[in-house]
Amino acid sequence: MAKIHCLNNISAYGTDRLPDSYQLVDDMSEAAAVLVRSASMHDMEFGSELQAIARAGAGVNNIPLDRCAEEGIVVFNTPGANANAVKELVIAGMLLASRDIVGGIQWCREHADDPDIAKAAESAKKAFAGTEIMGKKLGVIGLGAIGAKVARAAIDLGMEVYGCDPYVSVQAAWNIDTRVKQVAQMDDLYANCDFVTIHVPAMDATKGMVNADAIAKMKDGVVFLNFSRDSLVDEAAMADALASGKVRAYVTDFATPAVMKMENALVIPHLGASTAEAEDNCAAMAVDQVVDYLENGNIVNSVNYPAATLGSCAADGGRVGVLHKNVPNMMGQITNTLGQAGANIANLVNASRGDFAYTLIALDAPADAATVEAIEAIDGVVRVRVVK
Fold first, then answer.
1. Mean pLDDT for the chain?
2. Among 59, 249, 269, 348, which has the minimal tally of Cβ within 10 Å of its Cβ?
3. H or E stretch at 295
């Protein structure tokens, strides 16, 4: 019986998808897989039983990816599962920044006891007047699952959309609306757009990418929206730009001490994926990926190992998954070891990602313990899983 530990509250819509042969356990040291949302795992030690971690969401900065790879633990995320929820909040953020809706609501609350509030509102409302987003130009940095949806929704609302993503995948490219004006250089996007929204992952290469130099290239009075990660924006530069009026409004889903001191910042308490539908979608996707890995050895949407799949292993005589370093002649050593043991390879797939690789092998018969030990002894092999 496979044991699963939920480190955070995970939607029952997902956990109910676990087969009857699976058991939810309170003790993480017993678990073959962990389902997690936002809990930090960096200081945790992982038991020898742990084979997979699935993040019910896209961001994985709460998980020690490199250490997991070294220990042969495959980390999954759920890209796109919460994309619609984030898209809707980005659109709401643009509307909030275009018209002083928040200020108007606050004014009404402050004058709640005024018996002539309706008349007073007619005089006061001019202070909260704004502009429409129809006809304005939106720049979308990052055209993945979320960025592509934002772009399409903005176009349908009458905006002219520019997109920039030099690293967009072939699969993601199919989802980009043909009406998006794709530009190769970020400078072209900055120079043209009234609104800019960013949708890229948080990593060393993107940390602080929205800095003073980038902001200087934007149109005067631009509205900048950040529903990806707080670390993408240089907060000191953004504070200066807001104070000077270079940036008219900064809409962010990340409340930090620095951003709370910024004038003209609209701060939302990380609500991007906080919808019942998004939590259900993320949980279901995370569970399905974990089950597929544990039962078939297939890797889909991992962030520290490559994608590799052979479909269902129901018809295989045996199946073995080898997590290993991405070094020369590894494939030859693995297949040679199987050949010396008299094991016949029916099918296999091998893929690499950075310093690590994965080889999934379908056999005519189950691999015996001695053969598994021989593969484990190969220098550079991290872990061997007997799937079947």
1. 96
2. 269
3. helix 276-296
pLDDT tens digits for range 64-82 = 999 999 999 999 999 999 9
Contact in structure between 36 and 55 (CB atoms under 8 Å): yes
Rg (Cα) of the chain, in Å, rounded? 25
Closest CA to 107 of 94, 89, 93, 126: 126
Q: For 3, list phi and psi in degrees, rounded to 5.
A: -110, 135
Determine how many CB atoms are found less than 10 A away from the CB of residue 379. 9
- CATH for the 83-267 domain, from 3.40.50.720, 3.40.30.10, 3.40.109.10, 3.90.1150.10: 3.40.50.720
Which pair of tokens denotes residue 299?
A: 């890797």
Q: What is the distance between the alpha carbons of residues 130 and 115, in angstroms, rounded to a whole number?
A: 27
Domain boundaries, given as residue ranges, for the chain? 1-82+276-304, 83-267, 306-388
The set of residues, in sequence order, having a beta carbon less than 8 Å from that of 80 and lying 6+ positions away, is 58, 144, 145, 146
Q: Which long-range contacts (CB under 8 A, 24 or more apart) does 330-335 make?
A: 330/357, 330/359, 330/378, 330/380, 330/381, 331/359, 333/378, 334/359, 334/361, 334/375, 334/378, 334/381
> 211 to each of 162, 239, 253, 254, how far by Cα in Å?
20, 11, 18, 17
pLDDT tens per residue across span 326-364: 999 999 999 999 999 999 999 999 999 999 999 999 999
β-partners of residue 249 are 223
Q: Cα(158)–Cα(137) distance, rounded to whole angstroms?
A: 9
Residue 377 burial by Cβ neighbours in a 10 Å radius (0-12, 13-18, 19+): exposed
Q: What SS3 class is residue 374?
A: helix
By the 8 A CB rule, do 17 and 284 touch? yes
Mean pLDDT of 44-50: 96
Number of residues in the chain? 388
